[in-house]
Amino acid sequence: MDSLVFVILTLCSLSSPPFIKSINIQTSFSVDLIHRDSPMSPFHNPSTSQFNLIKKAAFRSNSRLSRFSLSLLSNESPESIILPNNGDYLMRIFIGTPPIEKLVIADTGSDLTWVQCSPCMNCFPQNTPFYDTTKSSTFSNVLCDSHSCTLLPKEQQLCGKSNECFYSYHYGDRSFSIGELGFDSISFGSSNSTLQGANSSATNGNITFPKSIFGCGYYNIFTSDNSGKASGLVGLGAGPLSLISQLGDSIGRKFSYCLVPFASNSTSKLRFGSKAIITGEGVVSTPLIIKSSMPTFYYVNLEGVTVGQKMFHTGQTDGNIIIDSGTTLTYLEPPIFDNFITSVKEAIGIEQVEDSSSPFSYCFTYKPDINFPHIAFHFTGGANVTLEPKNMLLLYESNLLCLAVVSSNIEGVSILGNVAQIDFQVEYDLGGKKLSFVPSDCAKN
């Protein structure tokens, strides 16, 4: 702890450039999302077996669940619990002038966008140079008495002697990031963008937001394996400092994604603004719930589940499941999961394969004549979402199928993970307070 105090005091002795106000822009654009285990990912190791990839993804998912649970049950700020390195999707951004490329984790369970910066007092390994504020002509500190600084939770705010704003984020596994809050240009690679307004620009397929708020981390420790690939995070949560909240009305407060299967040679797409809107046959919508006690997370309400010919109701109405792109598996709280797994086992009728080392609750031997039951999640507002076998099952070994739905083991904690969202366009409309789904071939969209 003494070393952390020293770091904080050292950072707070730095000087600060003038404050620059953010400016509204209007735009729509799309960027690539890369699953960390896909053939297109820098994390991809062709010698790693499918079995090990799925096992690691499931354990990452379990680790992420534990951090959600700590956050939800302790009423601490979500940013002090969720470890971004457990996210599954990566994207490329460019920071500063001239722009420096960074590979970062895209996370709907976090708010602040941050990268490792130079001069770094302690940083985890990365394969690219640290971002250096002195080499960017467009960087400016956020001032401690500014509105932007007050968007940080009070327990995570620090003030420098020249009134600059510092942040201190501590994560659930003793990882942390300490640094300064700043403004700079952040660009996203986009081959298809529409701009309206003079305060945004697109060059060589990149779309630039001139005065974005982000964290510049000078003292960072990750206890999870990063392999030197990712250098930070883009926060896509609902909190006030997230990328989504910063872009706000300029993107109509809308974004969407379409996730391809993990082994696909195509990238998933993350869309903003009018390009995020999904329309046409098969679109269903449900109220999107942001809770004041946990403003980062996106909740919807799961009213019931159909398995085969049986349907059961949850009896809940106030938002009982988080939708999250960074969690692999779907987790259901015990009362809901107990009904679900009982119904699935009855419908499939195949004896469970026991494996104490498995992160899954139900695995069974594949048979050619298996008749996987119809499964649908019923969300408030008549949003009935049919989940195909690819959304519910993972091939764990050559002939072993495992259900990608497990118990959270904690009452009040459920998460709709990314396997369940594969080959759906999912639109988050924060202004309209709704979440929409439509089945899609995401490799073609």
What does this structure look like?
By secondary structure, the chain is mainly β. The protein contains six helices and 31 strands. The protein has helices at about 1-10, 50-75, 145-150, 245, 335-350, 390; strands at about 25-35, 90-95, 100-105, 115-120, 130, 140, 155-160, 165-170, 175-190, 195, 200-205, 205-220, 230-235, 255-260, 270, 285, 290, 295-300, 300-305, 310-315, 320-325, 330, 365, 375-380, 385, 395, 400-405, 405, 415, 425-430, 435-440. The strands form five sheets. The protein has a six-stranded mixed β-barrel with strand order 2-3-13-4-12-9. A hairpin with a 5-residue loop joins strand 7 and strand 8 (about 165-170). Mean pLDDT is about 85; it is low at about 15-25, about 75-85 and about 195-200.
Summed up, what is this model?
The protein is mostly beta strands and 445 residues long. It has six helices and 31 strands. It has a six-stranded mixed β-barrel with strand order 2-3-13-4-12-9. A four-stranded mixed beta sheet has the order 17-18-21-29. A four-stranded antiparallel beta sheet has the order 20-19-24-25.
Mean pLDDT: 83
Strand order across the largest sheet: 2-3-13-4-12-9
* Class from secondary-structure proportions: mainly beta
End-to-end CA span = 49 Å
Query: What portion of the residues fall into strands of 2 or more residues?
Result: 35-45%
Largest sheet: 6 strands, mixed, barrel
What is the overall silhouette?
globular
> Helicity range of the residues?
10-25%
Computed Rg? 22 Å
The number of helical runs is: 6
- In total, the number of strands is 31
Pick out the low-confidence regions: 13-25, 76-86, 193-200
